[in-house]
Amino acid sequence: MSIQEFTQRSLRSILAYVAPPAVLLIGIVAFWEFYVDWRDISIIVVPPPSAVVERFFENPDFFWKEGGYTLYEATLGLMFGSSVAIALAVLMAHSKLAERTFLPLAIVIKVTPLVAIAPVLVIIFGFGTTPKIIVAALLSFFPTLINAMTGFRDVNEGAHSFLRSVHASPWQVFWKLRVPSAMPYLFAALKVTYPLALIGAVVAEWFTGDRGLGLVIFSANANLDTPTLFVAIGVLAITGVTINIVLSVIERRVLFWHESVRSTTT
Amino acid sequence: MANTEYHVSLHDLTHVFDDGRRSLTALSSVTIDVPPGQFTSVIGPSGCGKSTLLRLAGGLLTPSEGTALVDGEPPRKAQRAREIGFVFQDPSLLPWRTVAKNIALPLEVDHLERTRELPDLAELLDLVGLSEFRDYHPYELSGGMQQRVALARALAFNPTLLLMDEPFGAVDEITRSALRYELLRIWERHGGPAGRKTVLFVTHSVSEAITLSDRVIVLSGRPGRVRADIAIELPRPRTEEMEQTEPFLDYAAQLRRLLKEDAQ
Ligand SMILES: Nc1ncnc2c1ncn2[C@@H]1O[C@H](COP(=O)(O)OP(=O)(O)OP(=O)(O)O)[C@@H](O)[C@H]1O
Ligand SMILES: [Mg+2]
Fold first, then answer.
1. How many C-beta atoms surround the C-beta of residue A150 within 10 A?
2. A155–chain B nearest CA distance, Å
3. List of E strands, chain B
4. Measuring CA to CA, how many Å separate A11 from each of A217, A243, A245?
């Protein structure tokens, strides 16, 4: 396949993925603008899209900067939560005792409502970045743990036997077989946990905010500044979508061999 | 290496799978001695413990009773010396690796003694006829090709013992028959200074067993016991025409009868 052909094909496939939701989005925004105007709805209740866009362009740097803080906290929290989860999953995949020990605790973390934790975290960690990172970490912890554990165990039985038959060490089995086998599960987890970590960071900022989109939402709400509120939500949504697209692109490269990727490329 | 007459010695092997709630006897007092260089097939009804037998011989399982020895020592010793090459029913390749990297996998596990000359990658690829496909991934290959990759992978250490568990069970009949002769060609060609490799080959197919083997062992239904041990005295190299000759058909009738009696 020539380069030109390749570019054409990928352009066409991008178009195929982007066009339908773009059309839908434009439709919704147009209807929203029209409806607000038609019903003469107060800007405090629901601002028209034009007012939201206008507010953003009055000071785009401000929104990007606050969004940047939130993204930063969410990312740190995600990395922290996922690292702990993966480390535990390694233990649990190798030992039933570890599974019996840690799984109930993990479930406790899962079912505890975050909103109830946030004020406690403020008391413990103060108003800095730490409580945000912890909330984001707690939210990304459980899905990663479950997926990683399943992934490390979901190895091809024959490949495992083969490695054992040539006397591979558990360490070699782990790196050569378990880690690659777990990758599809880890990517699936990441697509869920990254947005969750963002939500976690925002909620924590809400309670303990000195900066970030959570604070912007909180104070805009308090001031009845609805357009700003909508911009903050919009920036959050765009961040989430961008993250998902980036993850999908990376996933396609890393998991080229996996059914989930192959079934959607041809 | 202990000096023994037999390459593989299975003595009074009994294996019970017990998970605490149920226990199931898969094999019962199986004794088989395989001299070096012999091609032995094991045939028997489904679930009679053929795979279990192979896993015991290869040291992937420890018998509940009895002993399994390779070169007069526990199989783990042979594993460590990389004397065992396993091929399973499903090719069990790593899908993220290319053909070449899959074949080289066992060599990455090395770092121990290298007591014999290893075939190089190009040679292995050539042996299984996949030179052009070295950079392909398993999902780009047919089932038969994947199985040939698995065979090359098992040969990477140039092991003296090949354990094959229905390696052609998942491919179609025509490919299967072609692979059978290809395996024979490889086995006849790929000997070392120590002579041909010892092969323990599990199959469901009577004609496959006869074509390939010096000896066919028939196991009874569960729990598996040795029901018959038949020497196949057909000249080598074996050819497709032989399948129509009288001795071949006689062996086939004998084996079918043994398998059928057991089913009743
Ligand atoms: N890991 C295991 N745990 C419990 N039972 C097992 C296990 N592996 C095998 N078995 C049981 O042992 C018996 C023999 O199994 P095995 O796989 O050796 O049979 P087989 O002769 O290879 O069968 P097939 O021809 O279908 O491959 C079967 O009844 C099976 O259910
Ligand atoms: Mg079997």
1. 16
2. 10
3. 8-18, 23-34, 39-43, 65-70, 84-87, 161-165, 198-203, 215-219, 226-231
4. 37, 20, 15
The beta-carbon neighbor of B96 closest among A165, A166, A180 is: A180
pLDDT score of B151: 92
**Alpha helical stretches, state H, chain A:** 3-39, 49-58, 60-94, 96-111, 114-125, 130-153, 157-165, 170-173, 179-208, 213-222, 226-254, 259-265
Q: What is the pLDDT of residues B141-184, one digit of tens each?
A: 998 899 999 999 998 888 899 999 999 887 888 888 888 898 99
Nearest CB partner across the interface for B96, out of A157, A166, A257: A257
Q: Look at the alpha carbons of A94, A96, A97, A102 in this order and tell me if their dihedral is positive or negative.
A: positive
Fold of B8-83+159-263: Rossmann fold (3.40.50)
Query: In the prediction, which pLDDT does A110 show?
Result: 82
Long-range contacts of A221-230 (CB under 8 A, 24+ apart): A224/A44, A226/A43, A226/A44, A226/A45, A226/A46, A226/A47, A227/A43, A227/A47, A227/A51, A227/A52, A227/A54, A227/A55, A228/A55, A230/A47, A230/A52, A230/A55
Counting from 1 in the atom list of ligand 1, the atom nearest the Cα of B27 is: 14
pLDDT < 70 stretches in chain A: 1-3, 6, 264-266
Q: Does B86 touch chain A (CB under 8 A)?
A: yes
What pLDDT score does B113 carry? 52
pLDDT recorded at residue B27:
92
User: Residue B249 corresponds to which amino acid?
Assistant: L
Grouping H, G, I as helix, E, B as strand and the rest as coil, residue A221 is: helix
**What are B119-129's pLDDT values in tens digits?**
788 888 988 88
What count of other Cβ atoms lies within 10 Å of the Cβ of residue B202?
A: 25
Q: Which residues from B are below 8 Å from A158, CB to CB?
A: 88-92
Across the interface, whether the CB atoms of B92 and A157 are under 8 A apart is answered: yes
Q: Give contacts of B154 with chain A, Cβ < 8 Å.
A: 162
Q: Where in chain B is the domain with CATH 3.40.50.300?
A: 8-83+159-263
Q: Categorise residue A64: left if φ over 0, alpha if ψ from -120 to 50, beta otherwise.
A: alpha
Flag whether pLDDT at B117 surpasses 80.
no
Whole-number percent of chain A with pLDDT over 90 = 54
Question: Would you give the DSSP letter of residue B118?
Answer: P
Whether pLDDT at B197 is above 80: yes
Contact B32, B207 (CB under 8 A): no
Find where tokens 């052909």 sit: A5
